[in-house]
Design brief:
Pfam families: OMP_b-brl_2. Keywords: Signal. InterPro entries: Beta-barrel_OMP_2 (IPR025665), OMP/PagP_B-barrel (IPR011250). This is Porin family protein. The chain is mostly beta strands. It has one domain: Porin. The chain contains one helix and ten strands; from the N terminus they run H-E-E-E-E-E-E-E-E-E-E.
Length: about 200
């Protein structure tokens, strides 16, 4: 099922790009993630991590484009804070790291020249799950693979972007996972993103 969705998404992207190839712009982007879990009677401390990847902008009208992306998105949450006054050589938090290959497919509407709003679905494939008791140093990683953690997530993303004439852009985005992170848990991924990029 997941493979079929990815193949269909890539095929649609390829067909659309081939029909508008003289107008398509490709780019790279990266930035910070502020990720947590949210749900009924559930709240977690935010994990500060990163996202990085590639994107394309496919114009379909004067002020309307489709923007598919493929990102590595580091998510999860901070498990706890540790009192460094009593513990030596330990970072000030422990992280539950739940990382994805994320494939957003966003509608992009320009409000004025350079400034656009973006919204659309994101299809997220889990690639890493571990607990790190020293997230600011090498080591401390413990792989985990909870049997009821979902390998695939459907999410929704929305945000703002400003693109300069030289191709450099800045953006902010919020992504919310519609699928349960853990099966039948009503716990969902919640990620604020801030980033920069460049369109070639």
């Amino acid at each position: 099922m997941k493979r079929s969705i990815l193949i269909i998404a890539l095929a649609v992207f390829g067909i659309t790009a081939s029909n508008a190839q003289e107008f398509v712009q490709f780019g790279i982007k990266g930035g910070a993630n502020f990720a947590s879990f949210t749900g009924d009677d559930y709240d977690s401390e935010s994990r500060t991590a990163f996202n990085v990847g590639v994107l394309a902008e496919i114009p379909l009208a004067d002020k309307f484009s489709i923007q598919p992306e493929v990102l590595y998105s580091a998510q999860g949450f901070d498990i706890s804070e540790i009192d460094q006054d009593n513990i030596v050589d330990v970072d000030d938090n422990i992280e539950y790291q739940l990382d994805y290959i994320s494939v957003p497919v966003l509608a992009k509407i320009y409000l004025v020249e350079g400034l656009s709003i973006q919204a659309g679905p994101a299809f997220n494939f889990k690639v890493n799950e571990e607990v790190d008791n020293a997230p600011l140093e090498d080591g401390g990683d413990t792989d985990v693979n909870l049997s009821n953690t979902q390998d695939f997530e459907v999410a929704g993303a929305a945000g703002l972007e400003y693109k300069f004439n030289n191709g450099f852009f800045i953006q902010g985005r919020y992504t919310y996972g519609f699928s349960d992170v853990i099966e039948d848990s009503n716990i969902h991924n919640s990620v604020f993103q801030a980033g920069i990029g460049f369109m070639f």
